[in-house]
Amino acid sequence: MKTISTFSLLLLTTTFLFAQQNGSYTKNDKLLNIGIGVNSFYDGGIPFGASYEQGITSTISVGVNADYLSNDYLSFKFTAIYLGVRASYHFNDLLKIENNKIDLYGGPTLGYRNFSWKDTKQNLGDDYGSGLFLGAYVGGKYYLSQKISLFTELGAIGSTNARIGVAFKF
């Protein structure tokens, strides 16, 4: 929790330092999000995730996402890996948001979840829970510059339902 609080404070401070420049979403943008989950669907561990999207219209981007979570507790270990595709609708035009530092978006995600666990003390293990997953999310970015933003995403986005991080536009 201390790590998440420190990371959040760093993100907030950086926001105010760079808030003078513009960004927002446009067609043909290449977007890379890198973040951590602020909670987990599983017991323990910090979920790490990334997504990459390409803008195909002025309001729609498509891409891929990956999520990783692993935790050890005594003799018990689990790992969850999510790989999938996603699409985002960028709501700024629809909501008539004219602030080009803000990008509000949301959409579906579809992919494969590999979940495995092992208990070395009792020599047990399984991949129960692996399979296809379907999710939906909403998110927002605040651009610190034309190429860097801070983001938050909420919804079924891998092994967490809330993620914060840094995004890069190419």
- Strand arrangement within the widest β-sheet reads 1-2-3-4-5-7-8-9
Helix run count: 1
Low-confidence stretches: 4-22
What's the story with the biggest beta sheet? Answer: 8 strands, antiparallel, barrel
**Secondary-structure element order, N to C:** HEEEEEEEEE
- Give helix % range: 10-25%
**Class derived from helix and strand content:** mainly beta
Rounded radius of gyration (Å): 17 Å
InterPro entries: OMP/PagP_B-barrel
Signal peptide: 1-19
Keywords: Signal
Protein name: Outer membrane protein beta-barrel domain-containing protein
Task: Explain briefly what this protein structure is.
The protein is mainly beta. The chain contains one helix and nine strands.
Explain the overall architecture:
The chain has one helix at 2-18; strands at 30-37, 48-55, 60-73, 76-90, 102-119, 124-126, 131-143, 148-155, 162-169. By secondary structure, it is mainly β. The protein has a single domain, classed as Porin. A hairpin with a 6-residue loop joins strand 8 and strand 9 (162-169). The chain starts with a helix and ends with a strand.
